Amino acid sequence: MARAIPLRRKIGFTALAWLIGLLIFFPIFWTILTSFKSEGDAIASPPLLFFNFTLENYAEVQSRSDYLKHFMNSVVICGGSTILALIIAVPAAWSMAFSPTKRTKDILMWMLSTKMLPPVGVLVPIYLLFRNWGLLDTQFGLTIVLMLINLPIIVWMLYTYFREIPADILEACRMDGAVLWKEIVYILLPMAVPGIASTLLLNVILAWNEAFWTLNLTAAKAAPLTAFIASYSSPEGLFWAKLSAASTMAIAPILVLGWFSQRQLVRGLTFGAVK
Amino acid sequence: MGSIRLEGVQKSFGDVHVIPNVDLDIADGEFVVFVGPSGCGKSTLLRLIAGLEDVSAGRVIIDGENATETPPAKRRLSMVFQSYALYPHMSVYNNIAFPLKMSGEEKDAIDQKVQAAAKTLNLTDYLDRKPRQLSGGQRQRVAIGRAIVRQPVAFLFDEPLSNLDAALRVNMRLEISELHHQLKTTMVYVTHDQVEAMTMADKIVVLQAGNVEQVGSPLELYHHPRNLFVAGFIGSPKMNFLGGKIAAAHKCHTIGVRPEHVGIDKTKGDWQGTVGVAEHLGADTFLHVKAESGETLTVRVDGEMDVDHGDKVFLTPEPAKIHRFDTNGLTLQG
Question: Domain range for residue B243?
């Protein structure tokens, strides 16, 4: 039953929500705005809200570096790590959700605890491993690393979704003669589609935005968009407008994806939180 | 064809022995009902037959073959769940067709069988709907359709009617009984409702704490319960039990007499008592009579009988219908 909320409180909450929303959005807005300014206007103090609109930063960025190459690297690394992680996480979450043992909770906790480790703590060993195996600056190497760092979250999320599927239904399908892989393909996956979709989206976003490993383990060949942005904060000094243009180009695809999938994402992330 | 045999079947979850030791024979074509209070292990026993739980010891023999190690998918049994367990993302048609698809049947054959099952169960108009668009009774029919379409060795029902309202439950009970007459396939049915057990079963298996208390036809159990538990569990309303002097007069520890076997009279009889609550069902009335000895007895009387709360009455049991039990609760013969 819906509770009646007094109008004044409603207005208050709405205003607060808008304020927080705008506050969070402001840096993105300012970056996009700055990308259309000339370098001079970009560093003007006080900051200019009205300025001469120019596209020269985009032209300059495009001529100085190969956006498409970085973009493709991002797509491959991001997509590859997500698909690989799902292939590993679906059976893992399935077994933890439907045939839990005494240690299942501990294993889940342990997996999550790896996310609490500061990445820089393992940078040197991983760097050395990558160097020895010839994985530095390769799409394959980065795909593996990103898959591994996001795997705990994916297993956790899928585990939560799978737990919501009544065990009866899986038992029914076993009684109906389905062997294990058919059970997963025909029943579990279709029923978990909303959960899998939001897991997939979240992982794509996390992988796309991941900067620590992508910056440290790549040079030129496999560098994704994060490296592309970073290349504009150079030793020659900061070029705010160009940096903003590069950033805008790098975040645009994921912003668009996020915009269209926001409903799915919100549902996925709050799943199980409210009964 | 569809015989099921349990030999020394045991099941433990950790230290808890849910099924201490069960031997049971289910003949081909029989309608067997497992009945008992909740937590008596009846569902577990069914799941052991289904293969959804592994036995801790003993053997499950289906159709003459040892199926103890056979996975559920290969036991050729169909099961109807309490929650129906329909596939929510599939239409009614696909739900019913699913077991046939799993066994790799041809598309035309599947269609023919699904249509036939839908016709039997009055589901033809609903084949395109999703389970969530159906009522409880319709969902149960789909679950049954999914079970019958494959022509299994035996059907397993796990409290299939307990989520339905009372009127629908009576209907579905008849439909399932009718289905059994049509198909003549072995059915194993689990319920806690002894009325369902009495009305549907060829053979009732009464369970308590994982042990089989008695196996027999409904009337066998009604007339010749082996012990106090079965006597009290089978029959509605419950059998009256009396101890003390009254039982001593019959040379036993406890006597039992069913409400329908107690005569009532306003002037004379064996035991005197005071009428308490009267439950009027129309044709019958169940009177709760507080006897002088302290026990409250339930008595079935004609619906027309005129008695009021607080009236003094006399009760007389039919001598031939008195059940006698010893100190261990076992029935004394003769």
Answer: 238-325
Residues in B closer than 8 angstroms to A173, CB to CB, are 87, 98
List residues in chain B touching A: CB distance below 8 A.
50-52, 71-74, 77-79, 81-83, 85-89, 98-99, 102-103, 146, 150, 156
Contact status, residue B7 vs residue B23, Cβ threshold 8 Å: yes
Domains of chain A: 65-231 (1.10.3720.10)
Residues of chain B in contact with residue A176, where contact means CB-CB under 8 angstroms, are 73, 78, 98-99, 102, 146, 150
> If residue B158 lies in a helix (H) or strand (E), which one and from where to where?
strand B154-158
Q: Tell me, what's the ipTM?
A: 0.84
pLDDT at A273 over 60: no
Among candidates A171, A177, A193 on the partner chain, residue whose Cβ is nearest the Cβ of B52: A171
Share of chain B above pLDDT 70, in %: 99
The residue among B188, B204, B232 that closes a domain is B232
Q: Which residues of A touch B82 (CB under 8 A)?
A: 168
Q: Scanning the structure block, which residue is given the tokens 């060949």?
A: A221
**Beta-carbon pairs below 8 A across chains A and B:** 63
Partner-chain contact B102 A168, CB within 8 Å:
no
- Is B228 found in the same domain as B266? no
Whether the CB of A76 is below 8 Å from some CB of chain B: the reply is no
Percent of chain A at pLDDT exceeding 70:
94
The domain tally of chain B equals 2
**Are B237 and B298 within 8 A, CB to CB?**
yes
Question: In one letter, which amino acid is B132?
Answer: R
Q: Are B4 and B45 a contacting pair, CB within 8 Å?
A: no
H helical segments located in chain B: 42-50, 92-102, 107-120, 136-148, 166-183, 194-200, 218-223, 228-233, 244-249
- Measured between beta carbons, the chain A residues lying within 8 angstroms of B89 are 190-191, 193
A191·B102 Cβ contact <8 A: no
Residues in A touching B87 (Cβ below 8 Å): 169, 172-173, 187, 191
CA distance B153 to B29: 9
Q: State the pLDDT at residue B208.
A: 93
How confident is the model over A69-94, as pLDDT tens digits?
888 999 999 999 999 999 999 999 99
B300 forms bridges with which residues in the sheet?
B286
**B187 and B39 in one domain?**
yes
Q: Say if residue B139 is in the same domain as residue B25.
A: yes
> Alpha carbon B218 to chain centroid distance?
10
